[in-house]
Design a protein that fits this description.
The structure holds 2 protein chains of 2 kinds. By secondary structure, chain A is α/β, with parallel strands linked by helices. Chain A has one domain: P-loop containing nucleotide triphosphate hydrolases (Rossmann fold), CATH 3.40.50.300. Chain A has 4 helices and 7 strands, in the order E-H-E-H-E-E-H-H-E-E-E. In chain A, strand 6 and strand 7 form a beta hairpin. Chain B is globular. Helix content of chain B is 43%, strand content 18%. Chain B contains 10 helices and 10 strands. In chain B, the strands form 2 sheets. A 5-stranded mixed beta sheet of chain B has the order 3-2-1-4-5, with helices on both faces. Chain B has a 5-stranded mixed beta sheet with strand order 8-7-6-9-10, sandwiched between helices. Chain B folds into 2 domains: 134 residues, ATPase, nucleotide binding domain (Nucleotidyltransferase, domain 5); 171 residues, ATPase, nucleotide binding domain (Nucleotidyltransferase, domain 5), CATH 3.30.420. Chain B is of the alpha/beta class. Classes of the chains: A alpha/beta, B alpha/beta. The interface between A and B is medium-sized, with 31 and 39 residues.
Amino acid sequence: MKISYGINEVEQVAKNLLKNTKTKTILFYGHMGVGKTTLIKALVKVLGSNDDVSSPTFSIINEYKLQEGKIFHFDLYRINDIEEAYNFGIEDYLDSEHWKLIEWPEKIEAILHQDADKIEIILDDNNNRIISLK
Amino acid sequence: MSSQNIYILGIESSCDDTAASVIHNGRILSNVVASQKIHEEYGGVVPELASRAHQQNIIPVVHQAIKKAGISKNQLSAVAFTKGPGLMGSLLVGTSFAKSLSYGLNIPLIDVNHMQGHILAHFIDEDGFDKPPFPFLAMTISGGHTQIVRVDDYFDMKVIGETIDDAVGEAYDKSGKILGLGYPAGPEIDKRAQLGNPKAFKFTKPKVDGLNFSFSGLKTAILYFVQRETKANPNFVEEHLNDICASIQYTIIGILIDKLKLATKQTGIKHIAIGGGVSANSGIRKALKDGEQKFGWTTYIPKFEFTTDNAAMIAIVGYLKFLEGDFANQDVSASARLKI
């Protein structure tokens, strides 16, 4: 599935996406500044969390509460290799039953489930986002 | 109280660094952050991040803090630790260690909010550094945080503004990444900014209501700008690096100062205390000094080692809570999303 959207339509896009994902693990691919965190912000809201979503680049993982369960929001931007991910206990997070929204999953590809939902965001020449779900 | 000798051990493990500090009454005796050196002394590898790293670091770091303080662990009056916010795996290491130590030594356990630590670091006794009077505004600016807090008393504080997306330090680092600078890029941008023209390029400031901040749009604006200019001239960044850095710095500082102005106007409070690693930025320091001249502010910045993630700030909060008899039970647990 492929959608083109402006940044102010992001909430509708988030709703559509969630209707089409198959798992609770969503991987976000796209260059810096393309709107990964902004889309996740919308997804977290649609999933029903009232928590503020901010970028976890420094903290690496943010947790948001849901009525039932949690959302883990990963940002692996500043880790260098998979060893560092093991060091903060990434397996415990990945094995959990909670939602996992992962920015910069390239860094840990080797340990991700093959069936995770993959979202790619690119910018077209008019600064519209084009999103594809695989 | 001053005739009493109170020694508090502070332990901080909320993110990357494992740190321990001993405070005697209000004065810091030792402030240790896990470093390569500790590993050299005790052997072993140096992983960059969190929990396993914390597990390896915590014992040597605490040892060294107590040793440097020149006391024995039996002299400790209490153990203070970071309860949150932070990365769960990392927090758990400090939390479990602090609980066991307080249990083993049979001394009180004190839980500390990391963000309160950044603010109360201003109350460490340090020659040449004044303490802000209540009420004051505290602005914490770092790689992970950007917030303005109204502080009416040590433990009476309220967040009145914070970032809705990226932290200010992150804005620096990611702008630096776009420009091909190393990580973290803040100090490099600051250095180059002093050699460039801050008005060479204009970046639109984000429009965020009230006292909240947003830096995500600025990052995207810089990205578009660099992409556009490099299309016309592949050497654009190289040729204008100092001017670009100066312009980015000018924009970021403008955002911070605008919100501070609004906060002082809304609250009528003109004492402003800055914390977090970005407070080392020379442009921000200069803008605050200008604010003293222009707007009648009095500004406070603690010694640098107390502004980044450190355990001295956990120890001072521990000390202040000790005076109030505010202790935690053994059933206290870490909290990744702890609020002020």
